[in-house]
Amino acid sequence: MLDIAFTAGPDEPIIGAAPGVVAFPVSKPEGSASAAVVATSLPDDLRAEAEAFLAQVAHSGKAGEVHILHRPLQETSKVLFVGIGEGDEAGWRSAGAAVTRSSVKETSVTIEITSAREPAAAVRGFAEGAWLAEYKFRLVEPGPDDGPKLTGLRLHAPGVDQRAIDTARIVATHTRFARDLTNMPSGVKTPEWFVDQVTERGGRIEIKVWDPAELAADGFNGILAVGSGSSRGPRLLRLDYAPEGATRHVVLVGKGITFDTGGIDIKPADAMALMRKDMGGGAAVVGATLAAAELELPVRVTALVALAENLVSGTSWRQGDVIKHYGGLTTEVRSTDAEGRVVLGDALAYAVETYDPDYLIDLATLTGASRVALGKRIAALFSEDDALVKALSEAAKAAGESVWQLPLPGDYRAAVVSEIADLYNSTEVSAAGTITAALYLREFTGEQHDRWAHIDMSSPSWADSANGELAKGATGWGVRTLVRWFESL
Ligand code: BES
Ligand code: ZN
Ligand code: ZN
User: Fold this and answer.
1) Is the C-beta atom of 260 inside 6 A of ligand 1?
2) Residue whose CB lies within 8 A of the most ligand 1 atoms, among 319, 366, 412, 455, for a mutation test
3) What's the CA-to-centroid distance between 354 and ligand 2, angstroms?
């Protein structure tokens, strides 16, 4: 990982102190005609040069916009001007990502963060943006465009505590772990492999795993049904971070389909191509739990990941089957491609029976319909608790992720009621796919429906191209939002 640290001290001059490149934050105040440097350390002789340069390149000051001033034969031969937008954490996050992606290689960049309105938030944002943008998934080295890399970032931010950088590092590390899990090809990524990866990094967290025989003994028949077509058996994974003196308890549930062919309701090739990502919700709840533990947050976090591979074979589950879930609810299978809700049903029922948490939150790449509703960058959020909706929405916004609430209309519930069992796992094509999936899950939350939230993050879990702090591929969506929310509890 990129080396990010504070400069030696408040008196250390930024320019000329160390070999390397200097960066200055730039912003365009409202109403003003041109963007200007917002730093106190800009020497007078450079100030006039910078002003002329910013005008010449028409720097907009927008977050993440970078222009490099070349100064041949001068001691500081390259000066980078990076936009910070409004100068809030999001602006600094984009700036951190942009500096990392800029063409400054084999060197260290020093930047001043002293004039930020909230310096600690700015430092956290900048470092997080840099570490997330640095990420790249490759199974062999080197890549076609793996040239020399930026070696380090030095942040000149007198008075800001080391904790700001440490928090960014922990959140970025676990977001990157969630991305790694999600990007890994499914030939490698079996339910057992997922469990092993987490167990290796579990540290002080208590971990419990159910193998297929244990799932059968305990009645997790939804997870077993979905995994029945694969020779690589399903698992249920439970993490428990229970710090002494915790006053809140959160239970997280994640969808962990390591590959989704659609089962006998097989997906067309194009729709199946990226279905290794169908465990992104499980990866996010794991990442958030590990991060909470490393940050030593005073919140108990229990995470459950329902892991199965949804394949087509002579032993696959089939349409018309009736599954008796953990806890007793039954599902009539209408589509073997609506498998996520079937494994989540078991895990939610287990959570409700076992714990009495303050909050019960599930994350899942549940429906393609969520992209139709909200597009590529926004996750769908469901909850009956308005305060929880507000808190999760604010956490997402602060974290640089985005959610939007969709309703849980009682009169749509009929769409998931079966004639011969309790529930159908899918509905008529004319039904609202994302909402009816949420209503199905709600049935498993029993008396805890009022403290439950469901997040369908099918779309934002994957980026089609690199953009800001997002690398192409898995985004690790949810780790950042959940950690922010824990911090607010
Ligand atoms: N894993 C998919 C949802 C998905 C689609 C995630 C695209 C990410 C990108 C899920 O298991 C699924 O197939 N859902 C069906 C539900 C339908 C059969 C009721 C869907 O969305 O079409
Ligand atoms: Zn599916
Ligand atoms: Zn799926």
Assistant:
1) yes
2) 366
3) 28
Classify the C-alpha dihedral 170-173-179-184 as positive or negative.
Answer: negative
Share of the chain above pLDDT 70, in %: 98
Ligand nearest to the CA of 256: 3
The CATH number that applies at residue 380 is: 3.40.630.10
* Overall number of domains in the chain: 2
| Residue identifier of the C-alpha nearest atom 22 of ligand 1 | 368
- Report the nearest-CA residue for atom 8 of ligand 1: 458
- Based on the fold, state whether residues 157 and 173 are members of the same structural domain: no
Whole-model pTM over 0.90: yes
Chosen domain end from 134, 161, 188: 161
- In the block, tokens 């929880």 appear at 388
Q: What is the DSSP letter of 467?
A: B
Residue 429 confidence (pLDDT): 80
368-412 pLDDT tens trace: 999 999 999 999 999 999 999 999 999 999 999 999 999 999 999
Kindly report which listed range (30-44, 84-98, 342-356, 414-428) carries the lowest average pLDDT score: 30-44
Give percent of the chain above pLDDT 90.
87
Q: Which structural domain range is residue 195 located in?
A: 168-488
Mean pLDDT of the chain: 95
Give the residue from 127, 144, 161 where a domain finishes.
161
Q: Which ligand is nearest to the CA of 427?
A: 1
* Rounded alpha-carbon distances, angstroms, from residue 341 to 2, 52, 239, 258: 39, 59, 20, 14
The answer, yes or no, to whether any atom of ligand 1 lies below 6 A from the CB of 367, is yes
Asked if 345 contacts 304 with a C-beta cutoff of 8 angstroms, the reply is no
Task: Reply yes or no on whether 267 is catalytic.
Answer: yes
117 catalytic? Reply is no
* C-alpha span between 442 and 458 (Å, rounded): 18
Residues 176 and 40 in one domain: no
